[in-house]
Amino acid sequence: MNIDLIISADYVDDSKVKDKTAVVIDMLRATSVITTAINNGCSKVIPVVTVEEALKISNNKRCDFILGGERNALKIEGFDCSNSPLEYKKENVYGKNIILTTTNGTKAINKSVKAKNILISALLNAKSVSDRVIDLGNDLVIVNAGTYGEFSIDDFICSGYLIDCIIKKEKDVKLSDIAKTCHYIYLNNKDIIGFIKNADHYKRIKKLNLEKDLDYCCRKDIIDVVPEYINGQIKDYRLFKGNENEKIV
User: Fold this and answer.
1) CATH code (residue 37)
2) I need a surface site. Which of 31, 80, 103, 154 has the fewest CB within 10 A?
């Protein structure tokens, strides 16, 4: 298995993901939201790039959807939820359809659509995602959502942990230079919060008094679901069997 890494959504193009498994990471906070919502029993998450697209999908069926997301880390006016995973509790999302739009994460997912498989990872479920990656047996490209098109420390260290989980189980692995660097940084900075506290994205979230989100998103392997994106929607991959062509609405 070859493993490569893309540093932000703005660097994704079809040639980099085609015929590979893509794992999208936006640990602060979109992929942590998606993983949490799926774990808490939502029917599906529909990731879209723009607020306008989210409103269009929910038009005339507003009661059928939870609108969630952020712009500049803040809740979007008129939406039900922000981009805090702590809002996506079981009592709020069980059996519901969620439309999510975020500054970085949902953009990264939608730019990866030419991949053979698209998995959603955070620290919360990295070990389970690594198992799924190995089972699929494709070359892997890890897609960091980044922050406003630029490199993000938090996604990078999360990717390093995912790589570590994979190579502990799969011996036939070849890392690109950037993937080697990512893994090396994780091995020497296993205190995740201690490492990412100087990240601009971390500082932005902390400034908004969202320390509980930060603490939660930095927990390793407390969830075992593996969200997968197929045909515009995200579910735990085990729930897609025989329903891959299901319509979004």
Assistant:
1) 3.90.1560.10
2) 80
Query: For the chain, what is the domain count?
Result: 1
Between the two ends of the chain, the Cα-to-Cα distance in Å is 36
* Residue 76 φ/ψ, nearest 5 degrees: -80, 135
186's tokens: 């994780």
Give dist(CA 17, CA 141) in Å, integer. Answer: 6
pLDDT of amino acid 226: 98
205: domain range? Answer: 2-129+147-236
